[in-house]
Write a structure and sequence with these properties.
Number of helices: 14
Radius of gyration: 24 Å
Oligomer: single chain
Number of strands: 0
Structural class: mainly alpha
Amino acid sequence: MKNEELKYTGRLIQVRIYLGKFLRMFVFQNDWKILPMGAVIAAVVTFVIGANLFQTQEGTEIGVFALVCVCIWNGFFNSIQAVCRERDIIKREHRAGLHMSSYVVSQMIYQLILCAAQTVVTMIICHVTGVHFPAEGIITSWGMLDVAITLLLITYAADMMALMVSCIVRTTTTAMTTMPFLLIFQLVFSGGFFNLSGFADKLKYLTISHWGMDALCSIGRYNEEPMVSVWNMLVNFKDLEYQGMTPLKDILVKVESEGLRDSFLLWSGQNNAKAAYVSEPSVVLMNWAAIAALLIIFAIAAVVALEFIDRDKR
């Protein structure tokens, strides 16, 4: 790209120029490979957890966590090297008139297209592997659409976080070294599987994974689903003897013979309900807004970081 082309163009035209450049890179520099890679990851995960996702509380929580992991991984991988791999070119073009806000906006549009494509691929894989989506949505009329919007927001927010990192670091090696630590932070502080307390519990509000899991569990109607772990635990101890008798086994047999097993599972789920997973529009919208706020912060930080690129004395 000629320096004169940037020197006398406005911000919007620069956005169009760079967006075209990124789309050409997608086609001719094999950036399209991220789509089949994401499909493979989604297929492996949903093949394992798909049958119980949105069917039981345990299956929903584990499955949602796995889906969030897929989305964050896809988002990180999309843009973690996007800026640092061409840092010298950006620095030269910035001195020739490139507006960093135009560059980042063009990246945001391009990355949004990638994230949307990955979301479509993930939803197709989920459907093929037998995931039973909620019939009715909380925000829209279709549960599948609510899930897709949430997955897109999670992927895009993770993408913007990686883009921010790529704008801050100077080499692709540093960027790739940073990515696993960001992923671990997102997973550990999601609040889904690890009991957090004190300051650690407050850190979860800074993670994309926390808001994403809450939104998906709310959309999946977690609080209305049966809980099977209590029943399974009782079954494991059914042969326990007391004074030569197996009272627990007798009770379980009676419950099953009278067709009360499903009622017991629903009762267990009602007693394991979580306020964060209430299936109400206000809860889902709050989670969506939190994810959107994070991705906006990441995008602004990316612009600010690039504004200081001329101070890079490498």
